[in-house]
Sequence to fold (131 residues):
Amino acid sequence: MALTINDLPTGWKLYGTFNNTKDRYNINFIKIEALTPYVVYLNITRYPSIEQARVEYISEKSKITQFKVEPVNLGNEGFGYVNDDSSIVIFRSGNIIVNTQYGVGGFGASSSFLSINDAEDYAKIVAGRIQ
Fold:
């Protein structure tokens, strides 16, 4: 149900550590273009119940106060925003929360060229795989 290197265009590589347990999946990818590192971070968390996932989703959304939050039509509920260096999409599907981030990921470059669609493109792949 997650992203793989085959889902990304040519030039992307695995980056950092990979975590895959029963209830948590994290993977990172990186691509260097003209000395600028671009990253895709994916975090998937399975909660014991839909209600716990719903509470966590609401909590995550309420933490975003300094950036414009926009609804995203993925899963049961979703939102996205662009921060200083990334486009981020978070959605809940049943008891699963997916957090997808695309951008320069803390490497010091600006995200002024990003839109929510950048992370949403990768989030859609994951949403299509959740059953």
Helices lie at 50-62, 116-129.
